[in-house]
Amino acid sequence: MDMREDGQLSAYRERLLEALRQHPRRQGREDPGLLQVFVNHECVGTLDCAHADPTLVFASRERPIHTIEIRTAAGLLVGSFSAQEVGMKTARFPVGRHAIEMSVHTRLAGGVVRVKYRAARTWRYRLRNAVASLAAGLPRMDQREHAWMRVMAMTQAVLTLAMLFLVADRVTDRAKPQATVVQTPPASIPFNTTQATSSEALFLQEQKLVRLAQAQEASLQTLQAQQEEIAQVNRALEAVARTQQQLRVNLQTVQQQGVDSKGVAPSKLNKLLLAELRNAAAERKQLRQQIQELTAGKEALSSALTALETRNRELEKNRKPEKPAAAKATEGAPPSPTTAPAQVAEAARENLSQLLNFWVSFQDGTSEASIEQLIQEIHGRKGQVNAGWYNVEVTLPQPQPPDGFMESLKKAKIVKAVTTSRNIPPSQ
Amino acid sequence: MGERQVLFTKLSTLVATVEEFDRLTVEALPELLERATGHARRFLRDTGQWTDDISHEKLALRWGYELLERFLVCGRSEVPCRPFFLLDSIIAKYFSQPEPLCYHKDLLSPLGRFLEGITSRAVVSRDALMALFYHLYGLSQGQVVRILGLGAVESQRVYKNFERWRQTGWQRAVAESGVSETELRQIEDQKHRQPEQLKAEADRLIRLVQTHYRRSEPEHFSCLTNQKWADLFEQDYDYDYRVWHLALCRDCLIDVYDLRQDELAGIQSPQIDLRLRPLQKGGIVTLFWAKSGGGNGHAGGRSTQRLSGTSA
């Protein structure tokens, strides 16, 4: 390579290094938009960050999961994760002010990836939360000062607003009559006009007084509410103090009993007590962790449920205009192989008679949500799952042959294979 | 012990916190890039794909850069770790995949590097993916929306994709793929002098590149039959599939066009029509100028842009 080429290469290297240095800054300011999720370098789905806390769940049945990457629509890598060992792993990546939470469950064959985008909360949300936490009562001991500060700040803000309102009102009251005098000389005003003006002014004053009274009432109510909250906090604190005192008394009693009892040394008793206390603290910590995990799980479930409900509503909405056409198509003749599974299910509701039990397997990478959705669409009941095969039972309308139903099911995009078998799952 | 030696020692010892990892990697970026590039160079040598010239050096640098980007983001979740060992492990894992790199001698030319650069970008960037329709076939965002039969929300996204690509994406992708302004001008010049020859060359290289990068799609994103394509558009589902597959498969794009020809009045069948620079915003004005004077607002001012019926 000659000097010119060396120069070109150095310039290129510098450009790439600069791009790498810029990476954290870009991560901080780039709008995530539509996030792409890559599993083993293949795009498996997108997360629309315009929605509230969108979540993507991807399940792989055969191939193990090695890497997960999250990129913005512009291709910027914002999260990367390596899942080399079998088991559960979680991570959290910042995207500007927002965050991505990722959890991977890797198995020897396949695995499940769950990616959730958490948008940063606005200051209004945080303020509302702070007030709610105060209203709910018991703040923790180390948060007591913060709670008081918040209460004081809010009270001050309310009082300042009320004062400003009063001052502004007084100033406008004084300014109005002066302005009237300047604009209209007394000689040119007839008596009835003056009377009308004064009654108008009185009416305006009256209205202002009413508004002022309302504002004052609102301020008072707010103050009362704040006082109630403060009283509630005080009560909670007193309760905590009482509990602590009771605990101290109990401890002293136990220690006294220990000293009184023969054959047990006080130091040993103390050690026993300390061990018990340590155990209790550890148990409490464990319990708190379990509660947190349960809460997180509940949140995930409720969000998944909401998403499913929304999806169902959409499907129902989309299906409504098709109902008459589907009824016509199914009248007197079995549905064609191209009939959608949803239409088959609609007809099945009308003539309940024939039970069909079959096994179905799905394309690789099909999410559990899609599988559940399909089973719901055909009004099926899911049985056991064996080596990627799902046992499903459906009730078919009398005139519809099972073969026709099976053919139409095979046409669904996510379905890999369908077979009938009574008890034994089909071999792979 | 020299400063460089100290840095090497630090990179080989255990890093305990994320802050320490960030600080150390920023300090040692040139060394890390050198190491990642060295791995790429060795892989090309071992597989008999290496020649001592600037094209191969640039190629190794680019792949080293891409691997280092992954290491910098992934490494934060792997702390505590030894940075050099972690980088080596990520790279080894990447190269152990079947055909990890899109290597072909013809792709080392400026045109090959341009096509490979934007297509590899399209695999990780939706902006680049949408822009492929313009760079390869000259389709504007409105035409892309119509051919793909997208809904209202998805259409808005396409316009945003084009906008971001115009503002920053194209510049960054071209810079990172190592194609210089001089080389872009050379290709434009060739397009002007020998349009048919360039088109044939681009056609050949596009097939090569698309075949490789289509592997980045999940398995079920394979080519569909005409009947399945028809179902997909009639029943109006799977926008993701349409976008991903049609951007990276010319044959299917032509099939879909033929299938939906009646609904695509005013749009010609997608043919190779290479555009090196991003679609400019003032398309309507450009069209007017193009009709009256023959320019198009691009550097060089030789080719005309196609415009959608709705917007440019």
Low-confidence stretches of chain A: 138-142, 177-195, 322-352
* C-alpha Rg of chain A (nearest Å): 35 Å
Element-by-element helix/strand order of chain B: HHHHHHHHHHHHHHH
Q: How many H/I helices of chain A?
A: 9
Write down the domain tally of chain B: 2
**Could you say which structural class the secondary elements and strand pairing of chain A correspond to?**
alpha+beta
Q: Work out the radius of gyration of chain B.
A: 22 Å
N- to C-terminal distance of chain B:
61 Å
Main beta sheet strand tally, sense and closure of chain A:
4 strands, antiparallel
**SS summary, helix count of chain B:** 15
List the helices and strands and how they pair.
The complex is a heterodimer of chains A (428) and B (312).
Chain A: H1 3-29, E1 34-39, E2 42-48, E3 55-60, E4 67-71, E5 77-82, E6 87-95, E7 98-106, E8 111-118, H2 123-136, H3 144-183, H4 191-260, H5 266-319, H6 323-330, H7 341-350, E9 354-362, H8 368-377, E10 381-386, E11 389-396, H9 402-410, E12 415-419
Antiparallel strand pairs in A: 1-2, 1-4, 3-8, 4-5, 6-7, 7-8, 9-11, 9-12, 10-11
Helix pairs in contact in A: 3-4, 6-7
Chain B: H1 3-12, H2 18-27, H3 29-46, H4 54-74, H5 83-95, H6 110-124, H7 126-137, H8 141-148, H9 152-177, H10 181-193, H11 195-213, H12 226-234, H13 239-247, H14 250-259, H15 283-292
Helix pairs in contact in B: 3-4, 3-5, 4-5, 6-7, 6-9, 6-11, 7-9, 8-9, 10-11
